[in-house]
Each structure stands twice: as structure tokens, then as C-alpha cells.
Design goal:
Layout (H helix, E strand, L loop, with lengths): L2 E5 L8 E6 L3 E7 L2 E6 L4 E4 L7 E3 L7 E7 L2 E6 L3 E5 L7 E3 L7 E7 L2 E6 L4 E4 L7 E3 L7 E7 L2 E6 L4 E5 L1
Antiparallel strand pairs: 1-2, 3-4, 4-5, 5-6, 7-8, 8-9, 9-10, 11-12, 12-13, 13-14, 15-16, 16-17
């Protein structure tokens, strides 16, 4: 399904279309006027002008990318078959990281050096070193883990079938 990127500058009262692409985009992340979006076929697109123009970045994968998260110009894109991509330079160079799973990965969040990823069949991956290595954690569920939120020492994960997980670091 083609994706449209829309923008509101007035708190959602009005919306304007910034891009209409034939891409199957699934997630967007950014700060200020610099944004990245990811999607089908390993697609990563980037803008530095608040979405007026978009440029494709080379991901090096054909796997669908489901989510993107970052801290400054350091970013992680995750997706199908355990795909984790990392860049430290705003996307000029994307490098794969070893996830240790072939499950679909759908959500990522973090703070400081710690990152968490959620995915299919209750997969939780945790890194304490900005993704240089990933540890599998037991979620106690086989549900899809769609959304992760970190707040101080708490990590919240929302999943299918009304799954709500909380972990205190």
C-alpha cells in the first residue's frame, strides 16, 4: 500500500501532504526538521527540511523495516527476520547488527546506552552497549510486542492480546 507522509504545524488542526511515495512506509523518527522513515524492501528515506524533500538512503537489506529509533544522528532500524541496522552518521552508512533471532522485530526504544526491541512471538532483545551486542530476555508471552516505552527505570511493553509488560531496571 502506498504511503503518504503528512505534517501538521498547528497541533493537528490542519494537515498537509509532504510526500506521496510508492513506498510501503511503516515508521518515522526524527528531531526538528531532520526525519527518517522506514518500510518495505529495506526502504529508508531521509529529510533535512522538515519533509519538503526526501532522499533515499542505502540500507543494504531487502527485508521490510518496521521501526526506527535514534539518539541524535545515531539510529537503529529494525524489521523482518531479525534485521537490525545501525548508523552513527545519520544514515550515510548503515551497518547490520547481529540480533540472534530470525523473528520479526517491530518496536524499539532506549535511553542512554540501553536499548530494547520487541517482536513476534514475545521476543525481547536488550542491549547495554548501544547495540554492539544483544541479549534475549524472557517475556513470558508469545504475543507480538508492538510498542516499547522507557521512563526512568521503568520499561513498558504493549503487545497483542492485551499484553502489557513492565520491567524495572
Amino acid at each position: 500500500m502506498p504511503a503518504a507522509i503528512v505534517h501538521s504545524g498547528d497541533g493537528g488542526k490542519t494537515w498537509d501532504q509532504r510526500a506521496s511515495r510508492g513506498d510501503d512506509l511503516s515508521s518515522i523518527f526524527g528531531e526538528g526538521r531532520e526525519l527518517w522513515a522506514v518500510g518495505g524492501g529495506g526502504r529508508i528515506v531521509h529529510t533535512t527540511d522538515g519533509g519538503k524533500t526526501w532522499e533515499k538512503q542505502q540500507s543494504g537489506t531487502s527485508q521490510t523495516l518496521e521501526s526506527i529509533f535514534g539518539m541524535g544522528r545515531e539510529l537503529w532500524a529494525i524489521g523482518d527476520k531479525g534485521t537490525i541496522l545501525h548508523t552513527a552518521d545519520g544514515g550515510r552508512h548503515w551497518e547490520p547488527q547481529v540480533s540472534g533471532t530470525d523473528q520479526g522485530l517491530v518496536s524499539i526504544a532506549g535511553t542512554g546506552a540501553e536499548l530494547w526491541i520487541g517482536g513476534w512471538d514475545g521476543v525481547i532483545l536488550h542491549s547495554v552497549n548501544r547495540g554492539k551486542s544483544w541479549e534475549h530476555q524472557n517475556s513470558g508471552t508469545e504475543d507480538i510486542l508492538y510498542s516499547i516505552f522507557t521512563n526512568g527505570p521503568d520499561v513498558w511493553i504493549l503487545g497483542s492480546n492485551k499484553t502489557l509488560l513492565r520491567s524495572v531496571r
